Amino acid sequence: MPTLFPLLSLSLLLLSLPSSSAFEYSDALHKSILFFEGQRSGKLPPTQRLQWRGNSGLSDGSSANVDLVGGYYDGGDNVKFGLPMAFTITMLAWSVIEFGDRMAGEKDYAAAAVRWGSDYLLKAATVSPNALYVQVADPNADHRCWERPEDMDTPRNIYKVTNQNPGSDVAAETAAALAAASIVFQHSDPSYSSRLLQTAKKVFDFADRFRGSYSDSLSSVVCPFYCSYSGYQDELLWGAAWLQRASGNATYMSYIKSNGHVLGAEDDDFSFSWDDKRVGTKVLLSKAFLEQKVAGLQLYKVHTDNYICSLVPGSSGFQAQYTPGGLLYRETGSNLQYVTSTAFLLLTYSKYLSSSGGYTNCGSTTVSASTLISLAKKQVDYILGENPAKISYMVGFGGKYPLHVHHRGSSIPSTRALPGHISCNDGFQYLHSSSPNPNVLVGAIVGGPDSSDGFADDRANYQQSEPSTYINAPMVGALAFFAGAATA
Ligand SMILES: *[C@@H]1O[C@H](CO)[C@@H](O)[C@H](O)[C@H]1NC(C)=O
Fold first, then answer.
1. Does the CB atom of residue 201 touch ligand 1 within 6 A?
2. Which family does it belong to (predicted)?
3. Cα 354–368–304 angle (5° rounding)?
4. What is the mean pLDDT of the chain?
């Protein structure tokens, strides 16, 4: 560029660049948050912007005389799964906590998306003593139908963990979500925030005292859907780390110090997701070491640095897989969940490094905060369209995006367009139709391409074309980072 425009100063050059050469990160941020309105269960508020959705699941919980109305559907079905929902809320809240000051007018919408989830988790944790409700609907029955949530007539069974049938994984993740949400509302709604924090403490205590995996207690309805493959130790530490950050109570720091060994260093495969919380916990705890030099926490920076090095091609410790087009690749199914969570952790860690003057060493290579930002930007830009297929993996963003999203509500004409009841089996014609989805699920990020950057845009290929709340949640923070930087 300088040789082409020798007379222009750098700032003039930047001003003269056509806007199409950079992504509209603020538009992507706006859409990434709007997506959560499409996943809402319960009675929609007057402020609902995504107009093709209607009320659903209005009697959830009534079979046991409890109120479990609200919350989010995880993806393209109509089940409310507690573990991924709680993880989604933790990550949405973390996005607001770290990057809310870069969200401008979107911050209130992001907080509303957190609250839609935290309101539900509060109910699930408090409607009956010594129990946490962790799921609504039998997923096997739900998956045998292709129905709009508004028409749903499949069994809305409810499932709970108790001291007799424990679920420390789902309970500790719920505690993490409530604690993280309490930070989001600390100033804007102090009484709500303190209710969230008090409930988080109780739920964490319940998770820690009655130990076991919900995959054992509720095997047939949570596995294989959201089986806790990583066990519950990772969630206990993650929950304690969030309670420590939200409350500042020394009890949680000593809990972390005496149980931290379970996070593992040698065998961590660095797959931060709704199941495995280890890397996220390491990044979260490295903040206290970097910024406040809390004794005994240096280990977490060392572990986080190992994670960072695993992502940097050419450095010692490199072990990640990238597609030829440059996308981080871990799994056939819903791969973009790992991409968005990694981008978020890179940006969050870059923030902690910047605020403390720290850096990462990978053998003889020094990795600075700005390197982490470029790594994250490459992944975010790939998702938004800078990829071999020249497609945006965010629905409704850019000129070309997935049209056959694996999502019941989006693929069947809305109740406004087609008011009659469409029953379980009658919906399948829409799953199998080659037409684009009639309702655009704006902002949804789908599972994404395969290991050679190929993408089918096929509704039957749920591994590539299904969106989920936990793909989007960390992307909200990553997009805020770049949106804020663009307007700063
Ligand atoms: C810290 O948390 C513990 C466990 O919940 C509680 O017993 C204690 O009172 C708390 N301390 C403060 C200062 O709030």
1. yes
2. Belongs to the glycosyl hydrolase 9 (cellulase E) family.
3. 80
4. 93
Mean pLDDT of the 377-386 span: 98
Radius of gyration for the chain, computed over Cα atoms and rounded to the nearest angstrom: 22
Å from CA of 179 to ligand 1 middle? 14
What CATH class does 3-487 carry? mainly alpha
In the residue annotation, 151 being an active-site residue is answered as: no
Nearby residues of 205 by Cβ (< 8 Å), 6 or more positions away = none
- List all residues 6 or more positions away from 460 whose beta carbon is below 8 Å from its beta carbon: 406, 431, 432
Does the predicted model carry a pTM greater than 0.90?
Answer: yes
For the segment 220-224, the average pLDDT, to the nearest whole number, is 96
DSSP 160-178: EEESSS--HHHHHHHHHHH
What sign has the CA pseudo-torsion 293, 296, 299, 304? negative
Q: Identify the pLDDT of residue 485.
A: 64
Catalytic residue status for 432? no
φ and ψ of 360, to 5 deg:
-115, 140
Residue 133 pairs in a beta bridge with 160
Count of other CB atoms within 10 angstroms of residue 88: 29
The Cα 161–Cα 86 span in angstroms is: 15
Atom of ligand 1 nearest to the CA of 205: 5
Which residue, judged by its Cα, is nearest atom 13 of ligand 1?
249
Locate the ligand 1 atom nearest the alpha carbon of residue 249 and give its number. Answer: 1
Strands (E), 302-409: 360-362, 365-367
Rounded to the nearest angstrom, the distance between the alpha carbon of 303 and the centre of ligand 1 is 29
* Ligand 1 close to Cβ of residue 251 (< 6 A): yes
- How far apart are the C-alpha atoms of 263 and 268, rounded to whole Å? 8
End-to-end CA separation in angstroms for the chain: 23
Beta strand pairing status for 158-162 and 360-362? Answer: unpaired
The catalytic residue among 30, 303, 404, 406 is 406
Which pair of structure tokens corresponds to residue 431? 């799953």
Residue 292, pLDDT > 90, answer: no
Asked whether the beta carbons of 4 and 462 are under 8 A apart, the reply is no
Residue for token digits 């949804």? 444
Query: Which atom of ligand 1 is nearest to 247's Cα?
Result: 14
Alpha carbon distance 382, 392 (integer Å)? 8
Q: What is the phi/psi pair of residue 162, to 5°? A: -140, 180
Based on the residue annotation, tell me whether 138 is a catalytic residue of this protein: no
Backbone angles phi, psi at 365, to 5 degrees: -90, 130
Catalytic choice (147, 275, 305, 466): 466
Separation of CA 25 and ligand 1 centre (Å)? 42
Least confident of 39-43, 361-365, 464-468: 361-365
Taking the centre of ligand 1 as the mean of its atom positions, its distance from the CA of residue 241, in whole angstroms, is 15
